[in-house]
Write a structure and sequence with these properties.
The chain is an alpha/beta fold and 338 residues long. 37% of the residues lie in helices and 9% in strands. The chain binds thiamine diphosphate and magnesium ion.
Length: 338
């Protein structure tokens, strides 16, 4: 009765304690990866210029970009006294690695269909500050526009939307649970078009409490959507508290595996080199009949001591004193503030 096997695996995954078991264990990555060879290539990085699709910034430049993005996030949220700094700071390395090194993309002119390019969909749309900062600093629009974040008539709405026509945004997100389905659709469209590029998607861990996510997981595995790389921001936190206090996710690697996905575990999603290495490793694992997921452990609020490791800065703006304290911790960079 082979059809019963997935259910048995799922049932056993649900009953297991949250530890890493089964095949997921085999793909656990070392805490720090050796520096990939391509990262030693040193090229000038000019964030105001559109990236050459084959361009790869070196790790020093990516680190500087990450430092500037953190400053941008805190300043954007402080400026309008609203927004989501916690998840944004925690996912900074992911966005910098993706847009600065992994994606083949063409910021200008931005083409909605992105034929011949890699596509990215942000499912946990509330962490828009990090995405907007990275989009601006990799050439999608002027960094000065970050000043308009969450202002009336701005293209930089609190949750990304296509209505305002912001380059880089291909679908509205923020109503949690939908982005995975959109990314799967885009990946299938690429397959139908004979386009060999990849589709990437980021989702929150709390977001996985949405039932639609699990329907999407089943669908992607069933249809062998193997040009898709999903990353989960596994920060263990959500709007009201730790995941475990709201609805525990249990053994996440075993669950994804039971749903038919190839599972990679990234132990430190705030280690830039590890994020780059894992995304590249994930690309090498595509095309084998399974969708790929990176379960990426991050620390919410990473980089600002009083925001770090707690849900309390999920969606809260710093006051003047907190802003100054954060800015002292986030050193200025040669890229300059917006
Ligand atoms: C469908 C839906 N329900 C509820 C919300 C409200 N909401 C916004 S963020 C959030 C928590 C999401 O947790 P997680 O995905 O872990 O994001 P993190 O707090 O780690 O940034 C919730 C419940 C929403 N945006 N969409
Ligand atoms: Mg979370």
């Amino acid at each position: 009765m082979p059809h019963v096997a997935p259910y048995l695996a799922f049932a056993s995954a649900m009953s297991e304690k949250p530890r890493f078991v089964g095949d997921a264990e085999k793909v656990i990555l070392p805490k720090s990866l050796p520096l990939p060879r391509f990262l030693h290539i040193t090229q000038p990085f000019n964030p105001s210029q559109p990236l050459n699709p084959h361009y790869m910034a070196d790790i020093t430049q990516l680190k500087e970009l990450a430092a500037q993005v953190r400053r941008d996030i805190v300043r954007m949220v402080f400026n309008c006294q609203s927004g989501h700094p916690g998840g944004s700071l925690g996912c900074t390395e992911f966005f910098v690695a993706l847009y600065g090194n992994v994606l083949k993309h063409k910021p200008k002119p931005f083409k909605m269909e992105g034929k011949g390019q890699d596509l990215f969909f942000l499912s946990n749309g509330h962490i828009s500050p990090v995405w907007y900062s990275v989009l601006a600093r990799t050439g999608y629009f002027d960094v000065k526009e970050l000043n308009t974040f969450r202002k009336i008539n701005s293209r930089l709405q609190g949750h990304p939307a296509t209505h305002e026509g912001l380059p880089g945004v291909r679908v509205a997100s923020g109503s949690l649970g939908q982005g995975l389905s959109v990314a799967i659709g885009a990946a299938l469209a690429k397959r139908l078009d004979g386009d060999p590029r990849w589709v990437f998607c980021l989702t929150g861990d709390g977001e996985l409490q949405e039932g639609q996510c699990w329907e999407a997981l089943l669908f992607a595995a069933h249809h062998k959507v193997d040009n898709l790389i999903v990353t989960v921001d596994w920060n263990g936190q959500q709007i009201d508290g730790p995941n475990d206090a709201v609805i525990g996710l249990g053994n996440l690697p075993a669950k994804w595996k039971a749903f038919g996905w190839d599972v990679l575990l990234l132990e430190n999603g705030n280690d830039l080199e590890a994020v780059v290495g894992t995304l590249r490793r994930a690309k090498r694992r595509t095309g084998k009949g399974k969708p790929v997921v990176i379960l990426m452990k991050t620390e919410m609020g990473y980089g600002v001591d009083f925001m770090q490791g707690t849900h309390k800065w999920h969606g809260k703006a710093p006051n003047q004193e907190q802003f100054e304290s954060a800015m002292k911790q986030l050193a200025e960079t040669s890229l300059g503030d917006f």
